[in-house]
Amino acid sequence: MIDAEQIVTLLGDSLTAGYGLKPTESLPRQLATRLASETPPVRVIGAGVSGDTTRDGLRRLDRDVPPQTDLCVVALGANDMMQLVPADHVRDNLLSIIDKLRQRKIPVLLSGMRAPPWFGAYALAFDAVYPDVARAANVPLMPFLMEGVALHPAYVLPDRIHPNAAGVGKMADALAPYVRSALAALRAP
Length: 189
Hints:
By secondary structure, this protein is an alpha/beta fold. About 45% of the residues lie in helices and about 15% in strands. It is globular, with a radius of gyration of 15 Å.
């Protein structure tokens, strides 16, 4: 049930935690700014932990996703990819996260991740996980959270991995319409 205020929780890793950034530059804060004019109002809660894999997110989900969440954006998998966690494990963890959220009656927006092409066969298997999970679980999918940001020097920190404030701004711009659409679908009769 949707109250006067809609709560969106971002369950993620360093990309949602704002690694290397000021709190005001983090994805939850920048997304909240993009959604500030929504009716009913939207409050964005950050549940990102740097270094987390899909398995870690599954383990802490009950603790970190508040029960009053109207929509949970699941934005995990970057660390699985960096650690070459088998794609089928990533898939199983994401499906378990979605199932656990469904048991709590919390709708999901899945935010995809992609492996760089030099990961070869692993990249092909990993990149297929998110569309497969979205289809299997029948949840909306944002194909790639870091579209136009990943591997672009102007949008990443000196580590060449994490987005800088401008990169997070691009991510928030891209994510906001997916969140609006998912929230609108919840309000539809």
